[in-house]
Hints:
This protein is of the alpha/beta class and 412 residues long.
Amino acid sequence: MTHSNGRRRVVVTGQGVVTPLGTGVDKFWAAIKSSACGVREVQSFDTEDLYITIAGEVPDFEPRERLKSKQLLLADKYSQYAGCAASEAVAQSKLELPLSDTDSYRSACIIGSGVGGLTTLEFSYKMLFKENKRATHPLTLLKAIGSSASAHVSIEYGIKGPTFGVVSACSTATHSIGLVYQMIRNGLVDMGIGGAAEASLNWGATRAWQAMRVLSPDGLFPFSKDRNGTVLAEGSGILVLEDYERAKERGAPILAEVMGYGMTADAADMVNPSIDGASTAMQMALDDSGLSPSDIDYVNAHGTATAVNDINETRAIRRVFGDVADDLSISSTKSMHGHCLGAGGGIEAVAAIKAIEENYVPPTVGLNEPDPECDLDYTPNKGKERDINYAMSNSFAFGGLNAVLIFGPPPA
């Protein structure tokens, strides 16, 4: 079955996450439904001389318990997160492994990261400049590069088709999933693993973010009148995508259909987002899907809790959805899992798919008094049941890099 214009249909057959709310989709979703918050005092590095002391750290992640690959045990944490999430997604998809020679070249592995192995680099610089070591660890380069997660996962599953990492700051995972979707839709490959991972919580990164004055010392409260910045977090979100006919033929579990994808660049400012860029990306995703604004039931907003972003995203949604904007259910799940940077769009794609599956709108926690300029239904503090057929997931990154995905129910 194809779209009316001859394109192949693309479905999701597996999903996996590593998040501050827990590792594994079931644990993550249960925390979302209970309005839990994974933002807490930092445990993994010394914050004595920092004024930002909170973050969304992944709890209880023991690589030797989570990972089978010996190579991944030697990798940077961001690659380990990607490997763990990919393992869950691949297991759910029931892919026949190892892939045949034909299938291996008809498969893609696009897993990105906003900054790659930043903790590996910080450790190496510490060795060189503080401890006066003569050399770094011999695997430093391989651990740090932003394509190592995709390479590790491709090796794990024998994927020999397009394999690389995408870098687009906080839109990385959404761009990665969107590229796999386009490759399958247009016949370049038949299946692919897409998403991103991030593990950049360390002293140096926090100092760099502090200098921008965009971090909150209190918590991440999107669309709230008293919001005062975002909160750094880590994790991974990975999807397995397939051609619908292939997935149906092999009896794969079909979780959702990828309906549309849009991407734009503001070409305006490195920090302040543009209403034009965000709204055009949403409209492109709608056009690609063949849906009208009234078909969308839920929007997982980018919702970073920074002053300009939340207002501009509200205005962009109103521009695209017009008279039906007030009928939308919207939330920012970052209020619970923090801003996972490049990985955020992958984790939020999973939230959007689960929302469709369970007809449940996740909450925006900490939204006690909304900003008057953020005047949409942002599902404050407690989730709710609602029929959800189509969900949109927004990612709007530094540099004005915008990416939007639309998901729908499994094909009838």
